[in-house]
């Protein structure tokens, strides 16, 4: 194994920013000199001399498998130490291996061959069974018969083929024993499958992206991007998706693939992306000079890193990202049998990419309380705490809906020093889990995309039992703010025997009767006139905040649940733009507006007619979201600069910012709850749940 830092630096010396989009805080020379060397500090290992590696997947936390095509075709190699060392595993086929499907269990995984054969192992690759050849090769351009196999979160297997008359998708729900041909999805051959937030996308030779949000049963055309073949595809998280084509054009989506923009053209035809995280990704081309490119800002602009530091004519064929609690490892496999390995501390990625992207927002030390000063315990899980949205607590268990994970992470924090993941609740009905609420021992989970409310018995939080699921509302209208209509159900709030469910793309609120908790029923609904996001009740009054693009506080008389009546509305398109969270303390209602970065105080002595008393903003309060109250302090999440503002509300008509928490462990902090003297936080991009002791903050 050799370190290629010197070669990487020589490449960087001739780099220039090839595509620009907006302004960054660092100039091109500074980036080239101080940033890019970290991203070419590869260790390089020749794993398959004379072979080609086009398939590489992570089997478990430490185990990586790769497979070969070409002169050394049909072979599998494995690493038990996250790609540092490799050994030969098996040769289950005489054909090219084009893809690997991991299951999360290193003993059980699948391979796909160039002849559309699916093989399975149940003993870590020691023995293999040919399950089925799904099709003969019907590609007229001499490509392989099939390139993609995927094992979904629900245990379904999906395979694409390259039929030139229309690429088919094959589906198995019994671990590959039997298969259903779903028919032609595209007008031409299909290529790769990619997990994307609330669904799965597929691309191919037709230049069109298709998506499924029902575990691969049905596929819908999203957009035709080009007449050239789409090969490279990568999900960056946080709803961002990249696609690139054979002509070198790169396309970006910031809303899970529903709409796209062309961000530029690079030299050479696309082969693959490798997500690094936090906005950085590698991109390889397989024609022309076969360069590797790097983006540091979610695909808006790209740096040319030159050819691979392996052998002449080599290119990046396929790569993966391996994430741990505190680091990111990239493994890039090449056409000539090499693996390039990079390792990045998450702290480095966080601080460096903030600076490059021009969003470095470090709060002055004198205004901050060190996070570690108050931290009792933390649990991190890359897969199961994946883009958390909220926290609801019950009997020392935290229930965290996770959007990208499409699950509810249940955390046992009865010992706050060592919280543990008790269970990950997964169900096709809770796709894009966005909100949860609890009544007695019943958990209600809201699925934004599916418009579903599912009910679970959580008497034993380690073993929840599903009781029912109902549809609430529909797709609604296209929202210009999101360039889509997928932002449907948003929040569920429970008070007594009623649940209040907001529906963004319909701008409606649904009132559910939960007298029979296991079987909620829709009682009534009404339009808000200005979005529908957060909901909060006090007595017979419902308060609403209508983010996206709502700019108002809406007050509703709910004494008659069948006929709710809007009694007041405070509207301000500037200072209330993006209202998204509410909290009540005594006779005061506190409201935050995400897009206006404001915190409002309302007197609700007359509950049906709130009176605005004040609003405040602060240069360090950026993107305020959720609110939690503790001893005359309001804790406000700021996801834009990864902080929690502590606002003094002892004089509720005139709140003032006191201190902040800010730390990379709070990257995209989105979930918050108070339990006694404990502050509970969950962060989207840090994939964690943290318990803080507020008595240790000095407040």
Automatic annotation (TrEMBL):
Source taxon at top rank: Bacteria
InterPro entries: Haem_d1_sf, Host-pathogen_enzymatic-act, LVIVD, WD40/YVTN_repeat-like_dom_sf
Coiled coil, from the record: none
Transmembrane portions of the chain: none
Pfam family, any one: LVIVD
SUPFAM superfamilies the record matches: 3-carboxy-cis,cis-mucoante lactonizing enzyme (SSF75011), C-terminal (heme d1) domain of cytochrome cd1-nitrite reductase (SSF51004), Oligoxyloglucan reducing end-specific cellobiohydrolase (SSF110296)
Protein name: Methanethiol oxidase
Species the sequence originates in: Sphingobacterium pedocola
